[in-house]
Design brief:
alpha+beta, 2 helices, 5 strands
Length: about 120
């Protein structure tokens, strides 16, 4: 059985597609992240309920965001989770600080931190 070799045209097309994908990831990655976040919030809002939660830890992440760990109670059960928030938002808060969140009442472990800025 003979191997089929790729010609220069196929290699050029592959290289161009690779560059286009890489540029799309570098420059469009933030927009993709925002789109995913909007979809998550829309799903939670479909059966959403506001609750008060307590920050248990703030872990400064990369240069623009911080990982916020929280705990909250819903229908007698304790839940915990984490969400990313801007570093400027996190600097104004500390462990023990009460914040508002929105949870999905069908899946209470799904939530997002409500930003009032």
């Amino acid at each position: 059985m003979q191997e089929k070799k790729l010609g220069p045209r196929s290699c050029l097309v592959t290289a161009i597609l690779t560059v286009i994908i890489a540029v799309g990831i570098v420059y469009g990655g933030g927009q993709l992240g925002q789109w995913v976040d909007r979809r998550h919030r829309k799903k939670v809002d479909a059966h959403g309920q506001r609750l008060e939660a307590v920050i248990t830890d703030i872990d400064p992440g990369n240069k623009s965001s911080a990982d916020i760990e929280i705990e909250y109670w819903y229908k007698g059960k304790k839940y915990s989770g984490e969400d990313l928030m801007p570093e400027s938002w996190a600097e104004e808060r500390h462990a023990g600080y009460s914040i508002n969140i929105v949870i999905d009442t069908l899946r209470p472990e799904e939530f997002y931190i409500e930003s009032v800025e």
